[in-house]
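In response to the reviewer comment on reproducibility (Comment 2.3), we provide here a single inverse folding case reported in full, input and output, so that an independent group could reproduce the run without further information from us. The structure tokens appear first.
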């Protein structure tokens, strides 16, 4: 069975009060529509038809997944009208799954169960029981229990309004049924819209039974119509993300105070303190500790390393047994070899720090390599930029750079060399030697300070 997914994403989302189309508002750092499209990809959909209207160009620019077929709905005349726009591109012999671009957190298992129920004589509907069903389409069942229709809130009788089982909007059926039924929809109803939900009655009339599936949790089928609902979905997502980290072996000091905005892998006995943000692809080895208020994006951290409080790491690799921070910034292209140490108020960019090397305080290392066991004193700056181009600083193993030194790149400091504190190094330094490049100390005895007139 081949699956095609149709995602409805043409709505404006007035209640967001935003210039951004609704489906581009983010959950866990990713547009809601991105979550839905990813889900469709995971279900192995052959084509993902995304029906867009409001802010179409923005939506297309933001969602760059494969297998997406963009379908324009110029005027939003209802959910049935929206799905109908995809008909010219929809195969006859496939199963179609309809999703909403603003319902981002449906689990793949739930959708797979829905799709599995579809065959020649059955379609499938995701429904849920709600204490307060206000606003939703109600599921109408005949006495035997079979679903025979959906009636929209605004069209419902008092008796129907008392029904607590509601339509989530998510459904699956043979594509050929959509080809057959959608052209027959009418808009003679309270809202003057073409309702996708009217196909349920058509199914019942054609002898196609409607099977139902319920989600594990209501949040799976909740849409975000305003920023409050968006924030609620975010919290629900984050709670699940925290649980899965804990299942994988991470101790979270407070599971309510971590934010995962990407894919995170953790080893055993990882400890993550409060207010940590993990984005992109993050891999954390066993026994790693991440201090409070640190932010890691696209980072790999080896076993037993410690990222202390208030660090910002982006696109870098930290090997095993390293210590970083507190207050360190590792920018893209930073590589720390085993047991390297980068301390407070140190910024590193596009640089390799060798095994057991130390860059402990107040230093900028950019476009550089530092050999094993070298010690870079406080306040050292690699002057990598001449105003036009970037240049490399190469520091060999076992080098000692005294505090407050400027290393003007391009420059090489060979193995075992020593740089006197306060030096401005402009030429290469050979192995084993001492380089001192600073004004000589003078002394004027009995110095009289100037006096105020
Ligand atoms: C719809 C269902 C209702 C269900 C509810 C669940 C219909 C007629 N009603 O109602 O039974 O309980 O969802 O949330 O289907 N959209 C388009 N183009 C359109 C109209 C809508 O792309 O012309 C998109 C919207 O952007 C949104 C989704 O379809 O993502 C649902 O539309 P919405 O107007 O929210 O439907 P409801 O009236 O809430
Ligand atoms: Ca809605």
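Designed residues, in position order:
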């Amino acid at each position: 069975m081949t699956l095609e997914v149709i995602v409805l994403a043409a709505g404006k989302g007035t209640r967001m009060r935003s210039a951004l189309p609704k489906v581009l508002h983010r959950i866990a750092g990713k547009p809601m529509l991105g979550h839905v499209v990813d889900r469709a990809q995971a279900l192995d959909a052959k084509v993902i038809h995304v029906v867009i209207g409001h802010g179409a160009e923005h939506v297309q620019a933001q969602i760059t997944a494969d297998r997406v077929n963009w379908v324009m709905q110029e005027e939003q005349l209802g959910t049935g009208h929206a799905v109908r726009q995809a008909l010219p591109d929809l195969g006859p012999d496939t199963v179609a799954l309809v999703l909403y671009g603003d319902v981002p957190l449906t689990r793949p298992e739930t959708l797979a169960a829905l799709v599995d129920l579809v065959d020649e004589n059955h379609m499938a509907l995701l429904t849920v029981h709600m204490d307060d069903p206000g606003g939703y389409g109600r599921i109408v069942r005949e006495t035997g229990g079979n679903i025979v229709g959906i009636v929209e809130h605004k069209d419902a009788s008092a008796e129907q309004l008392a029904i607590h089982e509601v339509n989530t909007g998510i459904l699956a059926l043979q594509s050929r049924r959509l080809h057959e039924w959608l052209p027959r929809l009418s808009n003679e109803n309270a809202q003057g819209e073409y309702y996708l939900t009217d196909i349920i009655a058509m199914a019942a009339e054609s002898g196609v039974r409607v099977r139902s599936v319920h989600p594990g949790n209501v949040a799976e089928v909740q849409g975000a119509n305003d920023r409050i609902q968006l924030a609620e979905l975010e919290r629900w997502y984050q709670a699940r993300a925290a649980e899965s980290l804990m299942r994988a072996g991470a101790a979270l000091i407070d599971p309510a105070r971590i934010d995962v905005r990407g894919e995170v892998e953790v080893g055993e006995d990882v400890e993550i303190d409060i207010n940590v943000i993990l984005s992109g692809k993050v891999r954390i080895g066993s026994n790693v500790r991440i201090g409070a208020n640190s932010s890691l994006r696209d980072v790999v951290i080896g076993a037993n390393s410690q990222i202390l409080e208030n660090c910002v790491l982006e696109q870098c690799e930290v090997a095993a047994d390293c210590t970083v921070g507190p207050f360190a910034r590792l920018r893209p292209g930073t590589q720390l070899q085993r047991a390297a140490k980068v301390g407070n108020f140190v910024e590193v960019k596009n640089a390799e720090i060798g095994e057991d090397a130390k860059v402990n305080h107040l230093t900028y290392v950019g476009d550089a390599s530092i050999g094993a066991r070298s010690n870079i004193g406080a306040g050292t700056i690699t002057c990598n930029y001449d105003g036009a181009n970037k240049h490399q600083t190469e520091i060999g193993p076992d080098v000692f750079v005294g505090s407050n030194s400027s290393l003007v790149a391009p420059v090489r400091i060979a193995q075992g060399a020593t740089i006197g504190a306060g030096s401005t190094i402009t030429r290469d330094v050979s192995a084993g030697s001492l380089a001192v490049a600073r004004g000589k100390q003078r002394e004027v005895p009995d110095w009289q300070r100037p006096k105020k007139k």
